[in-house]
Amino acid sequence: MNKEVFISAGEPSGELYGAHLVRALRSVDPDIRVSGVGGEKMRAEGVRLLGEITGTFGLVEAVSSLKHLRDTMRSITSYLREERPSVVVLIDFPDFNFKVAKKAKAQGIPVLYYVSPQIWAWRSKRIHTMKKLCDRVAVILPFEEEIYRREGIPVEFVGHPIMEDVEQIKGSKEFLREEMGLSPERGVLALLPGSRESELKRMLPLYRQVLSLFKERYQAYQYILPLAEGVDEKRFNPELSGLENEGVRIIRGNASKAMYVSDFGLITSGTATLQAALIGLPMVVVYKVFPLTYLIGRLIVDVKHISLVNILAGEGVVRELIQWDATAENIMKELDRLILDDHYRRYMLGVFDKIRQTYEGRNPSLRVARIIKELMEEGR
Known about the structure:
There is one protein chain. The chain is of the alpha/beta class. It folds into 2 domains: 4-159 and 362-379, Glycogen Phosphorylase B (Rossmann fold, 3-Layer(aba) Sandwich); 165-359, Glycogen Phosphorylase B (Rossmann fold, 3-Layer(aba) Sandwich), CATH 3.40.50. The protein is 50% helix and 16% strand. The chain is built from 17 helices and 13 strands. The protein has helices spanning 12-28, 40-44, 66-83, 94-106, 126-133, 144-150, 162-167, 173-179, 197-217, 237-245, 255-260, 271-279, 291-300, 308-313, 328-340, 342-359, 364-379, and strands spanning 4-9, 33-38, 48-52, 87-91, 111-114, 136-139, 155-157, 188-192, 222-227, 248-252, 264-268, 283-287, 320-322. Helix 12 (271-279) links the parallel strand 11 and strand 12 (283-287). Helix 9 packs across helix 15. The longest helix is centred in the middle third of the chain and has 21 residues, at 197-217. The protein starts with a strand and ends with a helix. The model is unreliable at 56-63 (pLDDT under 50).
């Protein structure tokens, strides 16, 4: 049996899930070989990389990465034709990964989509493309399962791989604070400005403004910022140095642990909002993109909330400050409310607990590894 698997993870969060999946695959079958598109985490798991991930996001920002994506697609096309892996696994990044799926289907290679496109939010007709190109779909949001099932697409809700990181945290908050160079006695505010370079360019200056206001009101707090491992620090040196000079502890990776040791979080919308909810971290959610990207997005995105935690809750349990509402003054007002309003904070944590119950104990990486093995067995 051909034991070659190809995994395409186009951006940092997907690459983390890819690394977890490779580890689980090797536990299911140590002889499985993996090639793919990813970054250092996947490389560290022994993946032969045909292309590197991109930090691009947005309609305007994507233009700068087109050549990189074209070169990567050429390498994948040659690989699929010449080496014919037994299964192709696609993780998020749909505009790129749909092209990979078409190439795979042309070679008769089974396709598993893991972390499917958010068709419930925008471009819903993509579900027809999914039906045509995918042999199986593994979804990470519980309500997505019914959407695919209605279309006759083989689907399974497997849980969210970020829960695996959360469940691995061991030790008391006080012990882990000391381990991370923080005082066990003083409060901690977590700063999560995003993992994509386009996000960091817009959010880091805003976070510095918020920090100045916060320090005027709450002098005893400490601050921690877990910088995504794929980020080139040199490109953001003035902002990061400014934050360090203000007393912010900047670490590489370990976002789950940084949130676990914190009392409150200022979080750029993305997977980190769900991560914070699973940990039980009260938060304010912010987001800013290139203005044209935002205006076009308003026309085509069909959701009331943008953060995963609010989408899963079905209500605005956390405040979302988006685009022009994302000012330092507005954010500071919401942080004040989080700190001072016990009822507001307790209600938020109660909703977070219900979300956590949906994801506990599922081990999605292992389940997806077993689905891959099933597809390999079916195709041999």
